[in-house]
Design a protein that fits this description.
about 190 residues; alpha/beta; Collagenase (Catalytic Domain); six-stranded mixed sheet; two-stranded antiparallel ribbon; about 40% helix; globular; disordered N terminus
């Protein structure tokens, strides 16, 4: 299976230098251009080459994606879909690093819980997804992703990183990502929510 969508034309979208952002669900203080600029900065900070597409959607859509690609019938905050390759209009291989889907509903809930604006929470989730696209795996890397995420969070002036929250949440169920995150279309998730 490939990534969930090749973000279709009927959705609102805006390309920002190697980034395609679709805000299916509005988030206070955030627009597609601002998120596109952040994703570009985060992608560069991570050292990830290639285009990153981002979809901000509802928990119902995230549940559907999670069921389809991970066989888990629950909404989740962020899913990453690493790309193996894609074809550009000219027929040449285009460099697509992957796609990230984010639940605006869960981001809003988390923003209230952690005391920061919803737009900042979307950025925290986008950074987490981008790290997964770059091959990081907080379930198997002995804290490497958590350290990298914390460092980047400070550089990008974001609130508490997602892996820092998960480390302190003993009730968090671990996900089991694929063994090769760069060459599979299996979605990755950082956190599950009922």
């Amino acid at each position: 299976m490939g990534p969930p969508v090749r973000f279709c034309a009927e959705n609102r979208r805006k390309a920002v230098s190697y980034t395609l952002v679709i805000l299916e669900k509005k988030v206070a203080g955030l627009n597609d251009e601002a998120l596109g600029r952040f994703v570009l900065r985060a992608r560069k900070a991570v050292g990830l080459r290639g285009q990153v597409n981002v979809l901000v959607t509802s928990s119902a859509s995230m549940r559907s994606l999670n069921l389809r690609f991970r066989r888990q019938n629950k909404a989740t905050d962020v899913l990453s879909f690493p790309s193996t390759s894609s074809i550009s209009k000219s027929g040449e291989a285009a460099k697509l690093a992957g796609e990230v889907a984010i639940s605006a509903d869960i981001a809003l809930k988390n923003s209230f819980q952690f005391g920061h604006p919803p737009a900042e929470e979307i950025k925290v989730l986008a950074l987490h997804g981008i790290l997964h696209l770059a091959g990081f795996d907080h379930e198997r890397d002995n804290g490497e992703m958590a350290r990298k995420e914390a460092k980047l969070r400070r550089e990008l002036r974001l609130p508490t990183a997602l892996t820092e929250r998960v480390t302190h949440d003993r009730t968090h169920p671990a996900h089991r990502p694929s063994t090769n995150p760069r060459s599979t279309a299996q979605a990755k998730t950082s956190r599950r929510t009922a």
